[in-house]
Write a structure and sequence with these properties.
42% of the residues lie in helices and 16% in strands. With 230 residues, it is of the alpha+beta class.
């Protein structure tokens, strides 16, 4: 009898799915953060983009995605290098820099990262900028290793207390909505561009109009100008 041959070892699974191209990256980030239900963990360096030729809509989308998730997800934990917060605040004339959810400062971060519900993660292909491409990771072993790395950095970090918006100022999460209204975008287009659901966008439009003291989208722009919000 011919001895049975051993089965060949399984082909190794790829570490993750690379995503390139601005449109594909934006769609992936929006879908990733929109899928969050319980927890969102990040390593982020907001100052890394300063002075680089990255389109403003991409930067706005990246920030909006995390802010939108923080409104519905119970746990949002961001780890930011200490130097980044002061650099971004110095570049922001309005002093409106606020980090959604809970944030801690550390001397450095190992790389940029987003982990959603401990099941999927995204890291930049160059470990620095998501705009240059990202690796979408679903392998449970790799994702859990990234979660452990985040936990280790979190334990050594310094808590950043939340900063309330100045009285009478436009809430940061409503500025993209105001800009979308002024640009004449449809609700569907604006929601897709901001990486949020149509229902969330409609709710924010209502919140913006209430803050402006009007029920007219047409009057919103004029009232925003009168208040110095533009």
């Amino acid at each position: 009898m011919t001895p049975a041959r051993a089965a060949p070892p399984p082909e190794p699974r790829p570490a993750g799915q690379p995503v390139r191209g601005t449109r594909q990256i934006c769609a992936t980030l929006a879908a990733l953060t929109e899928s969050a239900r319980r927890e969102l963990l990040t390593f982020d360096d907001p100052a890394a983009c300063l002075g680089l030729p990255i389109p403003a809509p991409f930067l706005a989308l990246a920030g909006t995605c995390v802010r939108a998730a923080s409104e519905r997800v119970a746990t949002v934990r961001q780890i930011v290098p200490r130097h980044a917060l002061s650099s971004v605040a110095a570049a922001d004339a309005a002093g409106a820099i606020r980090l959604p959810g809970r944030a801690r400062l550390t001397p450095s971060i190992p790389f940029k990262m987003i982990v959603v519900d401990r099941t999927v993660a995204a890291i930049p292909l160059d470990l620095e900028l998501l705009y240059n491409g990202l690796l979408l990771i679903r392998d449970p072993v790799v994702v859990q290793a990234l979660v452990r790395a985040h936990h280790a950095w979190w334990e050594t970090g310094e808590e950043v207390p939340p900063r309330p918006a100045p009285a009478g100022a436009l809430p940061a999460h409503l500025r993209p909505v105001l800009e979308a209204l002024l640009a004449g975008l449809t609700d569907e287009t604006a929601a897709a561009r901001l990486g949020i659901s149509g229902r969330t966008y409609s709710r924010r439009v209502g919140e913006l109009l209430a803050a402006l003291g009007t029920t007219s989208r047409f009057r919103a722009g004029a009232e925003a100008v009168r208040r110095g919000w533009l």
